[in-house]
Amino acid sequence: MPIETMSLVNIIGKLSDLDETLIRIANCELFHPENVTNKSKAEGFEHVNEQNPYVNLLQKTDDLLQKLNIPKKFNDYSYLKMSIEEIEAFINDIFYKVNNDSKEVSRLESVINLREKSLVEIKHMMKLNTKIDDILTSNYITARFGRLPIDSYIKLSYFKEKIFFFLPLDEDKDYCWGIYVTPNKHLSETDKYFNDMYFEEYCIPDYVHGTPQLAIENIKHKIKREKKSLQNIKSDLENYKQKYTYKLLLIYSKIKMLHDSFAYRRYAVIGNKKFYLNGFVPKENLNEFIEIFDDMSGVIIESLSADANKELTPPVKLKTCWLFRPFEMYVTTYGLPQYGDINPSSYIGLIYSILFGIMFGDVGQGICIFIVGLLIWKFKKMMLGLILTRCGVCSMIVGVMYGSFFGFENQFKEFWQMLGLGSLFPIDVLNPSSSMNMLIFSLGIGILLILISMLMNIFINIKNKHIGNAIFSNNGLAGLVMYGGLALAIVLLMALDVNIFNPIFLILVIIVPLILIFFSEPLSNLIQNHIKQRNAKKEKFSPVNAIFEMVDILLSYCTNTLSFLRVGGLVLSHAALMLVVMKFAHMAGSFGSPFVIVIGNVFVMGFEGLIVSIQVLRLVYYEMFSRFYKSEGKPFKPAKVVFESSKTKKK
């Protein structure tokens, strides 16, 4: 379960080679840059503080690709023989034409949209034989076109003394379209009446003239003409797209690389016409990284061990075998381990898959989970899909041991009899004796995993030279002896009727470890100070705090162990749920039982599958991670250029 070993790399070169160096660094995606501090102070180097000269050009190229609807992606631009000045002139020329055409497309689309809306409204006025201009230009009256809700139109008849005239022109089940006319001196009063009745006015556009019939013909003619113009402009834009797509993507790739690599100048310091960079490179890729600069005589690469500079913390890059690599998602969600610790992804992946399989043991449902996982990965590329495939396989394996296939129990008897294990398998989990054994087995799993987590904690602390924590902490050697010894004694007493609870056992296995855990803080400080921190500030020991911590530790030993009872509990609940499904299927008769079985299995897979996933994750995080895992690592983030679509690296 390793973490990628890093090498500290110092890069020194001519200032004139800085841009090319950064481009190669960003292109190889192997160099994690670090801020240079002491070098700049000690040797007169200064940090680079320059404005990126490619910002405007990249923005204009981005906009141009967007206007032409060209998906952004990386193209190998090594064959592009254009200087930055030539690229800028080309982009400006194309951008001017495309931008004007795009604006005209937007304008025409907006105009056509408004005219089509006007057509819809004017069609409601077809009964009006008067010229619209004559009505609108009267000096003594005001007319307003629009629509009223049917309920409001009916209410117009209730007005005894009308100061307006309403002419209905068209109606449907919800609205009545028409025009109301009123003398100018009563305009405000009439407008208030109609506003209160939810009248929606339609403002006649300036281009509408003559009778409604004539206006409709004129608008249709204009729409036809404008659509033709729109089509011509879109055709021109499409021609631009077909003609310049390849060249624009080459330019985009080059400018994007120049822009993003220039941004990494903030990590460089310069002085005496030289530049200085430092960062981390995975040790297994170190030779590959050095070879990138073989043809640059002015650039010197110096490689050191990761801990050569105590001010720099090496980044963490997890290195996990392909089988358990998807479980890195859970590890990184919790936080990365410190550099020098262990990568728990394989351990977590193995435990997660096994516990899931135990809780959700069913061959048929395991196959479904496996298929769902494959589909999620194929179409969504989500790591969760690959995790489900592992869990599905374990569910199938354990399902064979349970003899369960889509809820049908006691299957695969012939298989186990053929292996000579018919007396043990398949396991009837709902049998009272099997149920109790399952719960005891769950506690055994919990004890074993807690002990393994303690051993991992001891190993990590010894590796990082935290000897005090490795020996005296509740998850160190003292805790391991007390918890493991007590668990062993209980097992011997209950299983073999062997009592080892004698005074020597109690003193060595219970009392001494408890005393060491109680004084773990001062004892750890004493050892650490003796090893390498003689002048370190000592923290004051508080007996009161130690007492409360001891109570919490003892309770946690108990509760953490009992938490694993949920493993057996969920095994029983899964079997019980499927038993209920089968009972309902039996009640449904021969016709309805297949539907009940299918629906029941889908419900159990969705509902209990989610519960099992969450519970296993809880056991991993709270009962195991909390004992050995410190999520204080920083991620390995190599300098790179991120393109909108997948990038094929230039080699």
Task: Write structural notes for this entry.
This protein has 651 residues and is α+β, with helices and mostly antiparallel strands. The protein is 59% helix and 9% strand. It is built from 21 helices and ten strands. The chain has helices spanning 18-28, 38-42, 55-67, 84-122, 132-136, 150-155, 187-196, 212-263, 286-291, 328-334, 345-359, 363-380, 383-402, 413-418, 432-463, 467-472, 477-496, 503-518, 520-531, 543-563, 565-628, and strands spanning 6-14, 32-34, 46-47, 141-149, 165-171, 175-183, 200-202, 269-271, 274-282, 299-305. The strands form two sheets. Strands 1, 2, 3, 8, 9 and 10 form a six-stranded antiparallel β-sheet that branches. A hairpin with a 3-residue loop joins strand 5 (165-171) and strand 6. Helix 3 packs across helix 4 (84-122). The longest helix has 64 residues, at 565-628.
List keywords for this structure.
651 residues; alpha+beta; 59% helix; extended; disordered C terminus
Number of helices: 21
Proportion of helical residues: 55-70%
The count of β-strands is 10
Largest sheet: 6 strands, antiparallel
Looking at the structure, what is the overall shape?
Answer: extended
Quaternary structure type:
single chain
Radius of gyration: 39 Å
What percentage of amino acids are in beta strands?
5-15%
Low-confidence stretches at least 5 residues in length (pLDDT < 50)?
A: 646-651
Distance between the termini: 31 Å
Which whole number gives the mean pLDDT? 88
Helix vs. strand class: alpha+beta
